[in-house]
Design a protein that fits this description.
By secondary structure, the protein is an alpha+beta fold. The protein is built from four helices and four strands; from the N terminus they run βαββαβαα.
Length: about 170
């Protein structure tokens, strides 16, 4: 991913494990996005946090120290997942153990999918897709996409103010 370019980004938990099902893990993801947006490292246009993956429409706007914000996001959330699992002595931690020189655990799949948003139409299609994700039959998390808390849907549909750090795509795209 490049700075100042809008992407649809999808990344899953290793082996599609439902690590993000408990709210405490979804909140780690949310809090990282909030910090990056509040500190002007990213603009987030849309998001959904699912039980084992996330979808974002975002733009990395400034380096976070020497690294791209998406890398900071991946590292920070991984560290926080590890801390939470260790603190609660969660047996799930063993499923993320790896043999690697630079780390002992891996939570996110190595390669997220970044798709360049080439037009407003494509962005709107991806936004609809991520907002409708919680309604898919295999998830059935809610019956109305506005009722799913961990999504930007109600920001657009109801104009609620629960996520003031979001950037409306029409303001930028």
């Amino acid at each position: 991913m490049e700075l100042n370019t809008v992407y649809f980004y999808t990344v899953a938990i290793v082996d599609w494990i439902h690590l993000l099902k408990p709210d405490k893990f979804k909140n780690i993801v949310l809090n990282s996005l909030i910090w990056l947006a509040d500190n002007k490292k990213v603009k987030v246009y849309g998001f959904v946090i699912m039980p084992n993956h996330i979808h974002l429409i975002w733009e990395n706007t400034a380096l976070n120290g020497k690294e791209m914000p998406y890398m900071s996001f991946m590292k920070f959330t991984g560290h926080e997942f590890l801390k939470e699992l260790k603190q609660t002595d969660n047996p799930l931690l063993a499923r993320f153990k790896i043999e690697n020189n630079d780390r002992e655990h891996q939570f996110w799949q190595r390669k997220g999918l970044a798709v360049l948003m080439s037009s407003r139409k494509v962005l709107e299609q991806k936004l609809d897709y991520l907002h409708l994700n919680p309604l898919q039959e295999r998830w059935s998390l809610v019956t109305d996409p506005n009722d799913y808390y961990y999504s930007s849907c109600s920001f657009y549909e109801l104009e609620d103010g629960k996520f003031p750090w979001l950037t409306h795509y029409m303001d930028e795209f």
